[in-house]
Amino acid sequence: MKIKSALEFSHQLLSESIVAGDTVIDCTTGNGHDTLFLANLVGKNGTVYGFDIQAEAVNNTKALLKKNHVETDHIYLYNISHAKVDEVLPDETMISGAIFNLGYLPGGNKTIVTYPETTIAAIKGCLSHLCHNGVVIVVAYYGHPGGEREKNTVLEFGSQLDQKRYSVLKYSFLNQKHFPPILMAIQRID
Amino acid sequence: MKIKSALEFSHQLLSESIVAGDTVIDCTTGNGHDTLFLANLVGKNGTVYGFDIQAEAVNNTKALLKKNHVETDHIYLYNISHAKVDEVLPDETMISGAIFNLGYLPGGNKTIVTYPETTIAAIKGCLSHLCHNGVVIVVAYYGHPGGEREKNTVLEFGSQLDQKRYSVLKYSFLNQKHFPPILMAIQRID
């Protein structure tokens, strides 16, 4: 066994938390890998919401879903900021999982990145719809300009959450150079 | 699913790394729970070495093994410091796992604790016998006087390990008061 990378561990936590029929959110669809992963977890009776500020990302996600023959009538992709997650989701909708991959679009324009303020707004939006035992997972790539500040803002936000309502895990590698991604997982426990 | 505590996650990593017939080490036998756990993983064809500076801990461990009807002819318990692990193990012996629970003996004398210098010596001893993909896991309880320094010394040691030889994971909870234990896992990757 190899100890799982932050990305692999994010998938483990999602797999353990999400069951067929659930509603979930990919807050940074990127090239669509997590949207596809979530679509397979919730199945055709579940619902996936996906957000990305870049049209290229949304198009790449649609193409990946099509290539994998995934039915998309229950997958809603939005080319808007994930900060609007709470505006888009119906008030009564509860989610069992949400995933963020912070940084820039792999293979895309490296100057277009996620930002702390909108990321925190998006995390808050997800938390307001999170069901008992549901998880909001943030995988932060932070080697780019501003990435360190964003990572620290997210970790500080997690550190301040009420321990009676949320359990906040940090999963990180200590001895790797070149900014390996870190994972933060927020689980609702009340 | 509940996100695993540091203790539960240590057991997950050990379970994934150790198979029947392996040789493993409990560097702080305490009340014997991890020794028992390791004994069950390696089975009667495996070997468990256990260390504890307190005779009370070694006796508690023996009692727990007996209570659980574990054959003990392949379990070697030493009432000596874990700093001597490298002296005790035969040179050619390779281990697939080792576990440390740093702090004081639960239910015992709270003034008798593990110390950074001997802990680091013990970790080094384990690393010198660690096989490919083997793991050395440290669960640090650090709410007692000196505990914070010990935890930081251990994390600093892990941070300095060569990333070509070892992968060093930190697993910790960010929003809990009262010093929840943190986990550090060192996996040999070369």
From TrEMBL, chains A, B:
Gene3D superfamilies: Vaccinia Virus protein VP39. InterPro entries: MnmM_MeTrfase (IPR010719), SAM-dependent_MTases_sf (IPR029063). GO terms for biological process: methylation. Keywords: Methyltransferase, Transferase. GO terms for molecular function: methyltransferase activity. It comes from the Bacteria. It holds the Pfam family rRNA_methylase. This is rRNA methylase.
